[in-house]
Amino acid sequence: MSEAFLSEPFRPDQAHPTQAHPDHIHELIGIGFGPSNLALAIALEERQSGLDAVFLEAKPRFAWHPGMLLKGTDMQVSFLKDLVSQRNPTSGFSFLSYLHDKGRLERFINRKTFFPSRVEFNDYLDWAAGRLGGICAYDQRVEAIEPVRAGAGVSHLRIHSRDGAGRATVRQARQIVLAPGGQPHWPELFAPHRSDARLSHSNDFTARVLPKLTPGERIAVIGGGQSACEIFATLAADPACPRVDLILRGPALKPADDSPFVNEIFEPAHTDLVHALPPEARAQHLREFAGTNYAVTDLDLLQHIYGLLYEQEVEGAARLRMMAETQPVGLQTVGQGAGLHLTLDAQGRRFGLDYDRIILCTGYRRELGQTLLSGLADWQTGAAPDRDYRLPMKPGFAPTVHVQGYSEPTHGLADTLLSVLALRSAEIAASVELARADRRIAAE
Ligand SMILES: Cc1cc2nc3c(=O)[nH]c(=O)nc-3n(C[C@H](O)[C@H](O)[C@H](O)COP(=O)(O)OP(=O)(O)OC[C@H]3O[C@@H](n4cnc5c(N)ncnc54)[C@H](O)[C@@H]3O)c2cc1C
Predict the structure, then answer these.
(1) CATH C-level class of 185-255+294-360
(2) Which of 4, 85, 228, 319 could bridge to 361 as Cys pair (CB 3.0-4.6 Å)?
(3) Is the keyword Glycoprotein in the record (predicted)?
């Protein structure tokens, strides 16, 4: 199949690629424009596939986990695992190209680090998104995916979105790539209190907590992973001097294993190995290496927190506490604006503590059934995405649905991270192009 056959005029009959046109059917709509779909947009651009693609993003502009863009936090992967370098080291979308463009390449080299700050990496991603020239419509939260019937089957999909002012838009596509990231997890005990301003998830830390801190607040930070530790360290340094308890289920804060042999599981080639394993062996593999990513913290941050607690002991202060082997088992809210009474259980011993604020660092959930795909439930086979991240659908369903970040059980621990983006995006781009070519051949 020649490239010429696959090509079509780029984004036809539209004044602007992201502008909705009621009758137009896009070849591809990407839902969510975080690093995963940004990497895909770049892969499509670099493959010069001429594919009529548009991406829809809920946020008003590009931002990578803005609620946790904290001063002093660093990347947990090498900058070489950027959007492109592992696939195309000569790409103009690499982190090194970004540094060069910004005039900081030499000074970055002088820093002798593989790990830029998260603030800088966010700036890199924003720069890369900006270079794509308006392929993404921001402020478009997708609310539903509707199958468009053609006889007994489905020919394409209608994507319903809404902007911040409440205006609804409908676009159509023959293929979609769903990459909405994880949903902040609110454990059952706390879920009924979501709208209470005294409770928040780490995902909203910079918006809901930092600007609202008052001197001497009593704060419970719940969780024992990287986000909990970053928030604990940030609050410890806050001039408002809140009193902070770090409450974790496990016996101790544990370091993330990023040693070289273990780190090989994040290599893109490893995806094939994991995918080829029988289900039980895969599950065992995920358990074996969970300590690379879940409920663990970078060693330098652990050492910093240990130092903070030690200094406090020397000073005879008690503003910061770590409560290990402790879990929340009850929550009483004492009216709006008053305190929160948290019942805790430590090794079978129940006790209560009063707080002004609770911050949940309880991670994210990624369950396909709870995403926008519920609108396509009747057409799904229930099988996991295939090796190319395409969701198996029932006969008669012509559109393709690819997912990014929802295949950890079958593709391995790198699936929710940045490590495989450069390669995964090219695999999905190729699969999307192949589906387009197959459809055209079938129509001839
Ligand atoms: C604080 C933090 C730090 C991290 N640091 C690292 C790291 O250093 N290294 C690493 O490998 N991984 C890290 N991760 C893991 C993280 O999952 C990946 O870095 C990366 O963000 C995954 O990209 P994504 O595009 O799949 O998801 P996301 O980054 O979550 O992006 C999804 C996008 O979809 C949008 N969206 C969601 N729903 C809709 C909708 N209905 N309509 C339209 N748009 C929607 C969201 O607004 C968001 O912009 C970190 C995660 C967090 C929370």
Answers:
(1) alpha beta
(2) 228
(3) no
